[in-house]
Structures are given as C-alpha cells and as structure tokens.
Amino acid sequence: MKSRGVLIAGNWKMNHGLQETSGFFAELRQLAEAGLKPADRRLLEQGTLLVSVIPPMTSLERAVAEAGKAGFPVQVAAQNVHWEKSGAFTGEISGPMARELGIGWALVGHSERRQFFGETDETARKRSESLLSQGFRVILCVGETRAEREAGKTADVLKRQLSGALPEPGKGAAAFLDGRLVLAYEPVWAIGTGLTATPQQAEEAHQLIRKELWDRFGLEASGRTQLLYGGSVNKENADQLLACPNVDGLLVGGASLKPDGFLALVQAGARSLAN
Ligand code: PGA
C-alpha cells in the first residue's frame, strides 16, 4: 500500500481544443463505466487515487464542465499561472482568473517552459509561493538534461533546481503538510523521446528529492509529499514505475491524450494501491 496515495496527471500541453476536450471526456466516461472496478471507484472517491488533466488555457473552462460528468473525480489543472494577481503580463493568466473557472491546481516550472519560454528556478519559485498562498495545489517540475546526466551531474542539478524553485521554508511548509505541494521529477531526456527512466533511476532521483525536502522542511513534510515521475510514461511501463516506493504518481504527456491510454494509467494507479 502506498501511504501517500497516488496521483495520475495528464499534461495535454498544446493539444485538445474545445471539441477534442468534450470528445475526450465523453469517451473517458464510457470507457470508465466498463473499465473501473468498484474498488477502483472507492479509491477515486476517497481521494487515495487522484486524477488530474492539464489542458491548454482555452480548453480549461470546457474541461472543468466536462470533468464534472466524467463519472469519477477528475481535477483540472492549469499549465502556467502567474504569481501576480493582475497586471501588465501579456500572455499570462492569474490565480484569481483560474479560480473563476473552478480551477484549484496548477503545473509550475515544466521543462518546456524552462527550455522555450525562459522560465527559471526563480520564476518557478515565485509562481509556487504565490499559488500555494492562494490555496492552489501546485505540481512543481524538476529534472536534468541528457548532457547533465551523462556528465554525472544529476544530483547537483536536482539540488540546485530544488534550492532555487522550492518555496522558502516559511512560505511552503504548511502546503507540504496538507499535501498541496507535489514535486514531479521529469528528466528532460525522457520527455517525449520514448526513453523512459528505469525504475531504478526514477527511485534514486526521488530518494534524493525526498532527502532534500527533509533537510529543508523536516521529516513529516518530506514524508507526506507526493513525488511524481514523468517522461515517456505509458501503460506498458506504468506498473514498474509505480512499484517504486518513492514514486507516488505519474505526470504523463503523450500517453494521456487518448482516453483509453489515460484510463489504463488510472487503472495502473489503482493496481499500485491494491498491492
Ligand atoms: P511525455 O511528457 O509523457 O510525452 O514524455 C511528459 C511531460 O512533459 O510532462
């Protein structure tokens, strides 16, 4: 039994407009009717198994409406939310704007934001601190590049990213304790490449992250924090990854876009909780 529960999150990235969003949920509901066992539904209703989709900005409102009809609880998260509540920040949305749509979850510091849009550990920290103080659940992403791993720098990079991107202890400890801050380890070389980290590589990185959390926020906060693995997860490798003691869930891109693939990951989450 995984003491921290399991979170399966589907990052749609820049995919699925309005029609596709409605179609996704209609099909997911149908598949779930046949595919989810009563025991799976209990885990979902209790929140021991959490499911989230992370659509692009224009599909958020539709996703919230459709998720309500999915037949089991599905949380909708925003991909990128600014730290200020309003102002001259072209292209961004704020926490209150996301709230207005019924959204209480946000992804922060994804490596694509870092690679293509200048996101840094500092901006990731500002977003996390602000969103946590506004009551959001935050999934904060870290992970090394291929060159960094090959140079044997994975541990240093993760420590540096955590030290820059985690909220200041005073500003984040409460959120750790109530489980609102979730960390996602996403090695950049594994994202969208088909090169999944081995369960051993994922477990090693997750142990390191948990140790860093312990040093910064204490044993209790560290022990309660869900750590997700992301990077070329699919229904073939999900069970093995979820079997790792420090892998508390999955952040999935490509394999989350189709309802059948996504439901298979939710089922893997349920299996990992039954073991
Ligand atoms: P992938 O993406 O599953 O397509 O590798 C994961 C992510 O970027 O969150």
Multimeric state of these chains?
A: single chain
Order of helices and strands: EHHEHEHEHHEHHHEHHEHEH
Cofactors, ions, other ligands: 2-phosphoglycolic acid
Query: Which class best fits the helix and strand makeup?
Result: alpha/beta
Low-pLDDT windows of residues: none
- Strand adjacency order, main sheet: 1-2-3-4-5-6-7-8
Helix content: 40-55%
- Please, what is the average pLDDT? 95
What is the gyration radius calculated from CA atoms? Answer: 17 Å
The helix tally amounts to: 13
Biggest sheet record: 8 strands, parallel, barrel
Taken from the alpha-carbon principal axes, the silhouette is globular
Explain the overall architecture:
The protein has 275 residues and is α/β, with parallel strands linked by helices. The chain contains 13 helices and eight strands. It has helices at 18-35, 38-46, 60-67, 95-100, 111-117, 121-133, 146-150, 154-165, 169-177, 199-217, 219-224, 238-242, 259-274, and strands at 6-11, 49-54, 75-78, 105-108, 137-142, 181-185, 227-230, 249-252. Strands 1-2-3-4-5-6-7-8 form an eight-stranded parallel beta barrel, surrounded by seven helices. Helix 12 links the parallel strand 7 and strand 8 (249-252). The chain is globular.
